[in-house]
Amino acid sequence: MALEPYATKADLAAFWRPLTASEQSRADTILPLASNRLRLVAENLGINLDEKVNNSEIYKSNVQYVVMEATKRRYRDWE
């Protein structure tokens, strides 16, 4: 079962800037990867990140921010 990313393309565009068609396509790949990377780090620390995100708006917004920042950095690497 695929897990939902913590941020969407729409979230990223609202946070950063409008995405080109190419960037939108890449976001479909990068956002889930960044989200799952955080899940793995949390799991290694004994934390259920999805549970934390689902139970706290503050936690959710911070995790979303981290995913969007990681995605922005990845885009800059391609420039």
Description:
The protein contains four helices and no strands. Helix 2 crosses helix 4 and helix 3 packs across helix 4. The radius of gyration is 13 Å and the shape is globular. The protein starts with 8 loop residues before the first helix and ends with a helix. 19% of the residues are buried. The mean pLDDT is 93.
CA distance, first residue to last residue: 33 Å
Structural class: mainly alpha
Spans where pLDDT lies below 50 across 5 or more residues: none
Specify Rg, calculated over alpha carbons.
Answer: 13 Å
Keywords:
4 helices, 0% strand, single chain, globular
Topology (elements, then pairings):
Blueprint: H1 9-15, H2 21-44, H3 49-55, H4 57-78
Task: Describe the structure in brief.
The protein is mainly alpha-helical and 79 residues long. 76% of the residues lie in helices and 0% in strands.
